[in-house]
Specification:
The protein is of the alpha+beta class and 506 residues long. The chain has 5 helices and 21 strands. It is elongated, with a radius of gyration of 55 Å.
């Protein structure tokens, strides 16, 4: 059935009246809200916090990676003098459990084998030189002994025989000359014959004198000269022999060193452990060097790590804004990820003094490496597992605390707006340690005081000390935790922290 025209007009009127009533209601509510705000009725919008005493805890929570506290690094000890490195020929699979003395890796020793062959030839030549110089030295010793006990005596005996013959010839010549003188006196021989006999005497005297001089030269000069020469030969040949022996020893040492280097091309496990490859990554996080067949290993480069799973620790990286809180000896709680809520206890053992190398993802972020020991033994822990580490950096028992939102930085000071008898009273604070939620207040407010949680909204209702122009700008900053943190000294930035119990605002 089609509705009549009168009925349709009635329905339209009802709809119009409903829309008009709704519009009037909305407008009336808006006018009431505007008049309330414009009239300064702020008491109905107060957000207050009642100051209370609670235990304050400043803790830093970071994620890190489990590793063995005692890690044995296996390095290549092969010297790579004129080449970038030695190629890996064979390598044990990563994750293999090895015993001390088990095979780990074999490096290419072909260049060293060729060097060993060359060095062996040098050793042989040096050994031949040693034999030769030793024979020369021994020959020099024999030569000296031969001269003193043989050649010299032989030469002296010969000269003494010459002297004996000369003396005999002189005696005969003299006797013959005396006989000739007698014959000449009787006229049996002429003067010419007498002169010849006299000349024979003088000749024999000269021969005797020459033989004696020869003996004197042999005893006084030739013998000394020959002994000096022979002793010099002994010293020279002995020095050459010693030099040859030193050279031979050096060549042998070089050969032994090469053989030792060849032996070091095959590396065995120094202890029991789990084989972990020491792959290098560049600053972009990409693999720069990985342990595999064909990869070149530099001298002293770490190839493997053999962790001691009986003692574990956590390696964490702490942001530069928080590292000032972290010190060796701080207690820590370790929660391994994926271990069904396991909670272990330990302490910070060391904090690096130098920032870790950055990468392109965190170019402006500086992080410092810290190690946290695990004081308890737990089954199932493995190197490489992720763990959440909470380091307890500061603790104040029964401390008066106010939320960071309630603290108003004003120049170098801090204030809270305390509500008393319907008015705002600015109270200057002396603050202690802070975290992301609360300030510890040493002076300025008392337990039970009610402070504004949004103090910047009421700046017009209070009078604060005049600030220099530079600090006036800071009063217009939005009430963020960062603005509070920027006014705190560098030791009070933005640590990841917890308190023993969250306080509630009223």
């Amino acid at each position: 059935m089609v509705p009549s025209a009168g009925k349709r007009r009635t329905q339209g009127l009802v709809q119009f009246l409903l829309v008009a009533v709704l519009a009037i209601t909305v407008i009336a509510g808006g006018v009431y809200w505007y008049s309330s705000v414009a009239g300064g009725d702020q008491t109905s919008h107060l957000v207050l916090h009642e100051v209370d005493r609670e235990d304050f805890l400043l803790s830093i929570t970071e994620r890190g990676e489990l590793e063995a506290a005692g890690v044995t690094e296996v390095r290549s000890e092969v010297k790579t003098q004129n080449q970038p490195g030695l190629a890996i020929l064979r390598v044990v699979a990563e994750g293999t459990h090895v015993k001390a003395g088990d095979f780990l890796v074999e490096l290419d020793s072909s260049a060293l084998d060729a060097e060993k062959t060359t060095q062996q030839n040098l050793v042989n030549l040096a050994e031949a030189t040693v034999v030769e110089t030793r024979n020369l030295y021994e020959t020099a010793l024999i030569a000296k002994q031969e001269y003193i006990e043989g050649t010299y005596i032989q030469e002296r005996t010969t000269i003494e025989g010459e002297i004996f013959v000369a003396e005999e010839n002189l005696n005969r010549a003299r006797e013959y000359y005396l006989f000739s003188q007698k014959l000449a006196a009787k006229g049996h021989i002429n003067e010419l014959q007498l002169e010849a006999d006299k000349f024979a005497v003088e000749k024999s005297e000269k021969e005797l004198e020459a033989a004696k001089t020869k003996l004197h030269v042999l005893d006084e000069y030739t013998k000394a000269k020959m002994i000096k020469q022979l002793e010099s030969d002994i010293v020279i040949t002995e020095a050459k022999w010693g030099s040859a022996k030193k050279s031979y020893e050096l060549e042998v040492e070089t050969l032994q060193e090469i053989e030792d280097q060849i032996a070091k091309c095959t590396i065995y496990a120094p202890k029991d452990g789990l084989v972990i490859y020491n792959n290098d990554r560049d600053r972009h996080g990409n693999d720069e060097w990985i342990v595999e067949e064909g990869a070149e290993v530099r001298e002293r480069q770490v190839i493997f790590r053999l962790p001691d799973s009986s003692a574990m620790r956590v390696e964490v990286k702490v942001n530069e804004a928080l590292v000032q809180y972290v010190k060796a000896g701080l207690p820590a709680t370790i929660r391994p990820i994926g271990m069904d809520g396991m909670e272990l206890h330990g302490q910070v053992t060391s904090v690096s003094r130098y920032a870790e190398p950055g990468n392109w993802r965190k170019a402006d972020v500086k992080e410092y490496k810290a190690y946290v020991s695990i004081d308890e033994e737990a089954e199932g822990l493995r190197s490489g597992m992720t763990a959440s580490v909470t380091m307890k950096c500061d603790y104040v028992a029964d401390a008066i605390q106010v939320p960071v939102q309630a603290v108003l930085p004003h120049g170098d000071d801090f204030y809270c707006l305390v509500r008393q008898a319907g008015e705002w009273i600015p109270q200057k604070l002396t603050v202690g340690p802070t975290n992301t939620e609360f300030f510890v207040v040493e002076a300025g407010v008392q337990e039970g005081d009610k402070v504004a949680m949004n103090p910047r909204d009421y700046l017009a209702a209070v009078e604060l000390p005049e600030l220099p122009p530079r600090d006036k700008k800071r009063r217009g900053m939005p009430p963020t935790e960062e603005s509070v943190a920027e006014s705190v000294e560098p030791a009070q930035t933005t640590p990841t922290a917890t308190t023993s119990e969250d306080q509630t605002a009223t």
